[in-house]
Amino acid sequence: MKKILIIGGSGFVSTNLIKYIPENWEIFATYNCNSIKNQKIKSFKINLIENPKEIISIIQKIKPDYIVDTVAFPSVDLCEENHLLADKLHIDVTKIISKISSKINSKLLFLSTDAVFEGQLNKKYLETDIAKPVNYYGYTKLKAEEIILLASKNNVVLRTAVIYGANDKSRFTNWILSYLREQKTVDPFIDQHNSPTLVDDLSQAIIKILQNDISGLFHATGPTCVNRYDFALILAKEFGLDSNLIKPVTSLEKKQVAPRPISTCLDSSKLEHSIDFNFKDLETGISFIAS
Ligand SMILES: NC(=O)c1ccc[n+]([C@@H]2O[C@H](COP(=O)([O-])OP(=O)(O)OC[C@H]3O[C@@H](n4cnc5c(N)ncnc54)[C@H](OP(=O)(O)O)[C@@H]3O)[C@@H](O)[C@H]2O)c1
């Protein structure tokens, strides 16, 4: 029986990932503020900012075949305002986890981001393109990637983006849908482009990577390159909501603390070929969550 440890098991991706884990795997997971109710999972509470080294004994006790590390600050702006906290959770904790993981020969899979790229319109980034983050969130995630990939040749880094799904933790889709349902206006950016990723696709890809023992750096996003305004329009159409309530805004008009790249769409064909899997385009993904 395989053993999998999900660090950050209470988060958005992890909650979905758990649905796709084969029945005969033993599941362990950590959480911080949000406890894990699923009876099939042995869970451990840990605050990785306050007690980062506690993760060492948890990993040593379980000796998992696979570790999936999803812990991160979701807020790009928080990382920009508090470098020390971002360094602690994204860099220092990653060093601790990757060191103990390689010592006991666990395969470690880490979720990274399209924010490692500077951003360029009409381009889909490949794994071979040079990373050059424009904000501190992207910088710390890039440092973490380097640590993970150096620690063991069996490790995996997946760069993903704007994850969405039928889940109350799906931030962008929930904002748009809840406002439109209440007849309130929304103002998504028209000048920030990404490749939105269906959380169910990402979960299935992670399981295939582990089962096939694939290693290295991969992009793991949907194929559609879209700005947030057009994303919102597609959502409104699929859910039968009033698209007149969607007002486009530019990054100049609505200031954010951290700078954002203009377009960080990713090409995920390397991963798709490696695991014989296709990520859904945005229309198909949205009709999946609407069904
Ligand atoms: N969501 C996206 O659109 C997106 C896009 C690109 C990349 N990613 C990457 O994908 C990964 C997963 O994203 P997600 O949306 O699933 O994240 P999430 O829902 O915010 O989950 C984060 C997890 O980290 C845990 N955590 C946070 N601070 C912690 C701390 N101090 N100590 C211990 N645990 C802590 C949380 O625990 P509690 O909830 O129990 O506090 C939660 O389980 C992240 O690495 C993120 O950078 C996400």
UniProtKB/TrEMBL annotation:
Pfam families: RmlD_sub_bind (PF04321). Transmembrane segments: none annotated. InterPro entries: NAD(P)-bd_dom_sf, RmlD-like-bd. Residues 3-286 form the RmlD-like substrate binding domain. It comes from the Archaea. PANTHER family: NAD(P)-BINDING ROSSMANN-FOLD SUPERFAMILY PROTEIN (PTHR43242). This is NAD(P)-dependent oxidoreductase.
